Amino acid sequence: MAIILAIETSCDDTSVAVLESGKVLSNIIASQAIHNEWGGIVPELASREHISNISQTTRAALVKSGKKIEDIEAVAVTHKPGLSGSLIVGTSFAKGLALSLKIPIYPIDHIEGHLYSAAIESTELEFPFISLVVSGGHTSIFDVRSFDEYKVLGSTIDDAAGEAYDKTAKLLGLGYPGGPIIDELAQKGDANFYSFPRPLLREKNLNFSFSGLKTSVRYYVKKHYPESVGLEKDIPNLCASVQAAINEVLVLKTIRAAKTNGITNITINGGVSANSDLRNRFMSIGEANNLKVFFPSLEYSIDNAAMIGFLADARFSSGNKDLGNDFRFRVNSIAIRSRKD
Ligand code: KG4
Ligand code: ZN
């Protein structure tokens, strides 16, 4: 397929990308700072921000790509999963654009977009591979066989890992989103300061559970720092200890998935993959076990439209010319993150 304009609005980032034959020409991501003061994403505000951002984000993506709107030959858009109101803004805009330009439209699953995002930049990544998708809304391990074939090996049974980072940071009074803040503070802390629980670590399945972590942090803080006395000086140690608890489980289960399925390529995707301790752990354990570990660069790892356009191109370029002509598709909000504790 030639030139695609891709739109992603499943959560709180408005993103538009332009790709030519699978190569990313532009990938603009407009993040919504408005949620920071609420300590989590407010769905109603997210939809409103998408409406206000989407036209100028599209214009910026076109300008950066050097293409004109008439050059676009297909539109790709995230239609699930996500916040319904957010998805409706992106899909309605995409349908309007495709109808007015008389070009096909490809609805794409957001998680599938994440699954293949490491292939945007890497020519070395080969099927089959194990993919860990780890963000504020999702924590799942996949066995990926082709652009059309994959299966879920395990998922979180409650909170996503990013949610665990965000909720712990909130408990410690550190702000939102919590992941990057904990990452930075943990670099000055001692990961052995306290051993928080590693749920399901010893169980053979590849599921995760992170909801108990915030409760243990809450109890720990209540017991050891009444009225928050002395808490501040221990914050880096607590951050390092919480980070170690989350990351140890993520790494161990992903490596186990690779080994038990005899797969040597691993990709780590989603916002939490930016975590420096997680990267270090994966790189060293990968090396020790002769596994190739791929981290997409950050702009393709967080929510972005390039991964949506890339998958549409990969799936349909060889494809069925009838695909893309059905404008009746709906949005589907399954598996959204919970907004607050
Ligand atoms: O993929 P993403 O941008 O959006 C979705 O959730 O879909 O991921 C956002 C999540 C947030 O929970 C944020 O705290 C987490 O990724 N995150 C991190 C880091 N950077 C972002 N978590 C740990 N360490 C980081 N450096
Ligand atoms: Zn995502």
Q: What ligands can be seen in this structure? A: 5'-O-[(R)-(carboxyoxy)(hydroxy)phosphoryl]adenosine, zinc ion
Mean residue pLDDT = 92
Instruction: Return the string of H and E elements.
Output: EEEHEHEHEEEHHHHEHEHH
CATH class of the largest domain: Alpha Beta
Report the count of strand segments: 10
Question: Helicity range of the residues?
Answer: 40-55%
The CATH topology of the largest domain: Nucleotidyltransferase, domain 5
CATH architecture of the largest domain: 2-Layer Sandwich
Polypeptide structure, described:
The structure is a single chain. By secondary structure, the chain is α/β, with parallel strands linked by helices. Helix content is 41%, strand content 19%. The protein has helices spanning 43-65, 84-101, 110-115, 161-171, 178-186, 211-224, 231-260, 276-288, 298-301, 306-316, and strands at 3-8, 13-20, 23-31, 74-80, 105-109, 129-134, 139-146, 149-155, 265-269, 292-294. The strands form 2 sheets. It has a 5-stranded mixed sheet, sandwiched between helices. A 5-stranded mixed sheet has the order 8-7-6-9-10. A hairpin with a 4-residue loop joins strand 6 and strand 7. Helix 4 (161-171) runs parallel beside helix 6 (211-224), helix 4 (161-171) runs antiparallel to helix 7 (231-260) and helix 7 packs parallel to helix 8 (276-288). The protein starts with a strand and ends in a 25-residue tail after the last helix. It binds 5'-O-[(R)-(carboxyoxy)(hydroxy)phosphoryl]adenosine and zinc ion. 5'-O-[(R)-(carboxyoxy)(hydroxy)phosphoryl]adenosine (KG4) binds at residues 11, 135-137, 162, 165-166, 177-180, 183, 270-272, 274-275, 302-303.
